[in-house]
Amino acid sequence: MKNDTVNQHSRTWVAMMVLVVGVLAIVFGIALSISVGAANIHLSTVWEAIVHYNSNQTEHAIIRDLRLPRALADVLVGASFAVAGAIMQGMTRNPLADAGLLGLNAGSALMVAVCFAFLPGLSYNSLILFSFLGAAVAAGLVYGISSLARGGLTPVRLVLAGAAVSALLTALSEGIAIHFQLSQELAFWYAGGVAGVKWSQLKVMTPWLVIALVGALLLSRSITLLSLGDEVATGLGQKTVLVKMVGTIIVLLLAGVSVSAVGPIGFVGLVVPHFARFFVGVDYRWIIPCSAVIGGGFMIIADIGARMINPPYETPIGVLFALIGVPFFLYVSRKGRREIS
Amino acid sequence: MIVTENLDIAYDQTLIVKQLNVEIPPHKITALVGANGSGKSTILKTMARLMKPKSGHVLLDGKAIHRLKTKEVAKQLAILPQNPTAPEGMTVIDLVTYGRFPHQRGFGSLTQKDKEVILWAIEATGMEEFAYRPVDQLSGGQRQRAWIAMALAQETPILFLDEPTTFLDMAHQLEVLNLLEELHEKEQRTIVMVVHDLNHASRYAHHMIAIKKGTVVKAGTPMEVMQPDIIEEVFGIQCDIIQDPRTGLPLCLPYAISRSQKEPVIV
Ligand SMILES: Nc1ncnc2c1ncn2[C@@H]1O[C@H](COP(=O)(O)OP(=O)(O)OP(=O)(O)O)[C@@H](O)[C@H]1O
Ligand SMILES: [Mg+2]
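Above: the input entities. Below: the structure tokens describing the complete assembly.
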């Protein structure tokens, strides 16, 4: 029992390492992401553009207006999807929970398509609100359908209902896109595009996401308790209903705002928390910050990959993630089969 | 002291417990006994405010427990539910550490006192050698003891345990029961446990409550509850009650299933 403190320290140490390495990877990723693209820009020019910006130089303009917001959006959105997934997995005690899988992303995407079709010229502020509402409605639908069934809410039912609702909502958005001839506008956005993010959008979404991420950190300890089960958590003096409500709002914000900016990017939220758990164990005080950093890093690197696979064309980032995510998903569902069914 | 007043408890619309009035005597060990599905766990969870009753009250020292701050209740009362599951990969020591939650503030760093209690709980349940093993990779009995250690780490004057001895071998059953007896004797803790072994109830409990279909058939000392007619009514078995030669307490020796209780055999 003497190595008690030692063990505690070693886990803290691993978590710190993950955070430091992750942040370094993000910084490196941002630099790389700015210099790589249809027009390659030298790193020294990148530095120059940041330190002494010269609006007459096209390269500086590309960096400032296109590449920098894109890189920042990658990090922010990657972190948000990952943290949303981590919270959902902890709250529902379901290793397969994820904003994409449970229909939240599809709900947001449908609302955005509806806004494009019926309310063109809507401000980005309002679009975010609609996107948030879309996520909330989808969450309500999935939750309602799976708890209506006899025997109540089980992880499998939740995922099945999520898949069904996702399919329905996605079909609806596609229908709207075809009927209103929005395919051009929406097509890339659906497959998950960070390419179009502008400063004006970034300014609106950043405060929301930062608030939600900080909220997630503050909630992290309560989520660990919830992961012991509702009964045990209540027995230990946790206000489970309150925690779940706050947690749900945070998840809806993270997913809704992110989808409104970059479209429904799946699998980040599913995969990243499992990586984080692999390194730092079961404590959400570490899982959440590490998911944020790994998710941000993952996303920016995937986005660089998306631009390098087939230049000058950009491979949709959602496709890249599905490529990594699907095998991982199968692995997790096999490993956890006994608890899941 | 815990008292229930006209408790009705339901899952959705099905009423499971009707007009329950029980008293849990303070500083004693109480055993809840009854057949599978009779409502023992439901009653235990409601008395520990994990479930809301449909109507009626549970009073803890005269105050309605469902209106008290849940964290304050958690300092008074620890409950081990029937089938808790830990997240994959959570170690025993992690789990026991969460037992200190009601005593912590903010982000929860451990004080010296917390650490001492955690180590004591692990030792008291004989879990030293498994402290760093993931709970989900332990045997059923080891896992049960890990959860008991968590409840002990909560350090509450009242302890509720739902079938603390299931999965345990005979030596570990006695070990857990002896530990509970010791907690009662040394620290005058109030303990309520659900047990299926009537002879354990008789040997360790001062007070027994026999439940059938959500109502109390008989409450009293083991001597009063361990009667052949009561046991036949509650469990549907016929038994002889003899005196334990060592302790003088009643022992139940079942010999037959009551006619009306027999399931029809389909060949
Ligand atoms: N979550 C639930 N939803 C609906 N009905 C339930 C639920 N939990 C228990 N019940 C029903 O309530 C009744 C009492 O269940 P309870 O778990 O309290 O029994 P118990 O006495 O603890 O049984 P056991 O000895 O098997 O643990 C049973 O008929 C059971 O089917
Ligand atoms: Mg039970």
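Note for the figure: The pocket of magnesium ion (ligand 2) is lined by residues B 40-41, 82, 162 (CB under 6 Å).
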